[in-house]
Amino acid sequence: MFYKQLDSGKYRYFEKYFDEKRNKWRQVTVTLKSKSRVAQSEAKNRLARKIEQSKKVPTANEIQEQIVQNKTVQEIYEEWVVIRKQDVKPASFVAEQISLKGFIEKFSKYKVSEVTTADIQSYLMELDIANSTRKNRRIYIRILFKYAENIGYIDSNPADKVVLPKVRLEIETLERANEKFLSKEEMSSVLIFCKSYKKNIRYTLAMEFIFLTGCRFGEFASIRYQDVDFKNKLLRIDHTLEYRVAKYDDRVIQTPKTVGSIRTISLSNRCLEIIDYFQKNCLDDKFVFVNAVGGIFRQPVFYKFICDNCQKVLGNERKYGIHLLRHSHVSLLVELGVPIKAIMERVGHRDESITLRIYSHISGTIKNEISQKLNEINL
């Protein structure tokens, strides 16, 4: 310690010390009226206290580390969604947020560094959902924590080591799979009913068109006249209507979900007749399939039309919907003996396992053919 007299007559006492956290020499001071032994002793005590207090002041790195450690799941989520929204298609983004909603609500106030593998596993196992849905929830949670890991908020991803039951094809699952399609006879009976009772002709024809092409609803609703090659009987599918996140009449067109969804498919004569009907009764010079007022098909309205009429004809034991028609198209192709690779290309599936998993059922006609062929074998 040393001191010097100021112009005011007071004395300023100095003490240097080495700050190990900052790795440099620092200095503290106090000012007293005297340089007596008592004053010097007082100065020494005050300087010691100042040094002790100074050592407790966190460094910039410690402050940043504390901020990181105190980050909550909600704060991480809010950071992540800004980036995630730009990475995926709007519909996929909405689906992810719906899947994560329950997890975020439960863990929003948790510090992200305190969420454990056991926490995530307990949350997922407590949900009353199918194992396949549980697996998808874990995927989204894992993506969220991967962001936190990459940024440096956590050292490892707690979702990586979550152990879930394997997705098994149980008897009930297989039975449900067999219910997710209409045979051509069932489709025919529904169409006859709709025409006989003069149901909405545009929805009736749309239902038939999807059954004959296997288009997804977004692909179907975005078909333009320029996409149809009438001479060669071809339809180019390279875009989709984003109907889930936009206002209906905004007609937001975007690229398909995957590259494999971009394709050119052949059209039957009946498909061309359906397109011809819409062209002759044209209410929009660009889009083919529009409703009675020239707007794009409302997905909920079309869905209800399919459900109501299928239930009246086929009963309410099954769940009906737009995607059922796409399933039915694949089942029809299987029944016609079309190779799995050709089916994949037609419906826009890039991964063979998807087609095999979703359409693992075999219709009654195919089963009978197998039985007949086996009966012809003599060993």
TrEMBL record:
One of its GO terms (molecular function) is DNA binding. Pfam families: Phage_int_SAM_3, Phage_integrase. InterPro entries: CB, DNA_brk_join_enz, Integrase-like_cat_sf, Integrase_catalytic, Integrase_recombinase_N, Integrase_SAM-like_N, Phage_Integrase. SUPFAM superfamilies: DNA breaking-rejoining enzymes (SSF56349). Residues 71-149 form the Core-binding (CB) domain. It comes from the Bacteria. Residues 177-372 form the Tyr recombinase domain. Belongs to the 'phage' integrase family. This is Site-specific integrase. It comes from Lactococcus lactis. The lineage of its organism: Bacteria, Bacillati, Bacillota, Bacilli, Lactobacillales.
